[in-house]
Design goal:
- This protein is mainly β.
- The protein has no helices and nine strands.
- The strands form three sheets. Strands 3, 4, 5 and 8 form a four-stranded antiparallel β-sheet that branches. Strands 7-6-9 form a three-stranded antiparallel β-sheet, with no helix packed on it.
- The two termini are 78 Å apart.
Length: 187
């Protein structure tokens, strides 16, 4: 091997070259004159890349080139396990009714369940109340809207009871009401 620091291209080498042509980690090589040695360093990912030359080099930079910042982690809400929670999934049952103290009112109980990963935070419940005649004939339907009882937590099942009334003049003597329909709008 020559003493001036130049390397031979015909000798056996162990290891491999990095993409930039510099020797891989663990390999050392010197080139040029003894006054300007070539340095190698292992990069952050374990790859070898030429180090920034010191003040005696031809490059006048004294700081490494700027790198783009790493993306900020996505915030998670709710469960704290690092997974993004699933949206709220509200279900409700059929209305259970019982008579109230006036013929034009009725107590209505509806069960709500949230099988999603976030709480239900807003919504409304619409009751469809039918006016039934003495012979069982459905004379019409009246809608009434109430606020959904919120919040409904993830995994919770809650029953709520409302007193649903229609105008007294709609239910003459001998008639009654039946709340049969329930629809829910929620967020």
């Amino acid at each position: 091997m020559p003493l001036d620091g130049s390397r031979s291209t015909s000798g056996k080498r162990s290891g491999r070259n990095s993409p930039g042509g510099a020797p891989a980690s663990g390999d050392t090589a010197a080139s040029g004159s003894p006054d300007t040695p070539e340095r190698t360093a292992t990069g952050p990912g374990g790859d070898s890349s030429p180090a920034t030359p010191g003040p005696t080099g031809t490059d006048s930079r004294t700081t490494p080139p700027a790198t783009s910042p790493a993306p900020a982690p996505r915030p998670t809400s709710g469960n704290g396990n690092g997974k993004t929670p699933t949206p709220a999934d509200l279900t409700w049952g059929d209305p259970a009714t019982r008579p109230a103290d006036r013929r034009w009112c009725q107590k209505v109980t509806v069960g709500f369940g949230n099988s999603g990963g976030t709480a239900v935070r807003a919504g409304s419940v619409t009751f469809g109340t039918h006016v039934i005649g003495a012979l069982g004939i459905d004379w019409g339907m009246v809608d009434s809207v109430v606020d959904l009882p919120v919040p409904i937590a993830p995994g919770a099942h809650e029953d709520h009871t409302w007193t649903v009334c229609v105008d007294a003049w709609r239910v003459p003597l001998g008639m009654h009401i039946e709340t049969r329909d329930v629809s829910v709008q929620w967020k």
